[in-house]
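User: Earlier you gave me the apo prediction for this protein. Now I'd like the version with zinc ion bound, so I can compare the two side by side. Same sequence as before, with the ligand SMILES added.
Assistant: Got it. Here's the input I'm using:
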Amino acid sequence: MTILLVVLAAVYGLLIGSFLNAWAWRLAHDERITRGRSHCPACGHQIRARDNVPVLSWLLLRGRCRDCAAPIHWRYPAGEALTAALFVAVALYDGLDWVLVPHLLFVSALILVSQVDLEIRIIPDVVILPAAALGVPLMVLFGDGPWWEWLVAGAGAAGFLLLISEVYFRVRHVEGMGFGDVKLALCMGVYLGVAVVPALFLGFLGGAAVGVTLVAVRRGDGKTAIPFGPFLAAGAVVALFAGRPLIEAYLSLALGR
Ligand SMILES: [Zn+2]
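And here is the structure of the complex with zinc ion:
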């Protein structure tokens, strides 16, 4: 049973990862998702079915278009592999439970907004707002916690990021964080509940570590905009699996319990 669940999660993860890539590309390049089959962005040739197999095709083609040899970014096969890996991890963590539905939806949304944020530094409203809205009834119905936890955590996380971006703006006089990150935090709170606290903490820690490293190797001046969305998303993934144990570990350390 578990093996079947893992195989199904891996196969669906690869297929959905491939779909998320196509969607991310079209969001980043202002194309409608409904515009038919995938085509090479460089030469416009339609992508053959055998060249559209997740991860494998990219490896066989050595990261280049079959028609024009234009390079295909490694972020695309990486996104497919990551989606499959996260689907398997969620399936193993939740088992056959209804909470699988919101959790798979959540990791899919995180991957999609991260891909778009990495490419054009925007968290698309058209993804993050419906994801947050869908999360409320799904988590109230299937989540492991009181019904209000998801609402309070969503509002609290969004409010916290809004506050941080306001303070940053007053102090540095530059936009440190986009409003997109506030909406991403809202979505994270809805799906994570109280576990959004360690998620935000880990996101800020990761973002700060990379920011400081970039300044140290002189690739940034401290004001270089690095997309913050993927850091928040990574924090969210860790917290999805380890959020509650992290909170308990912190409380027992802080309070000596
Ligand atoms: Zn091409």
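For your comparison, keep in mind: The mean pLDDT is 90.
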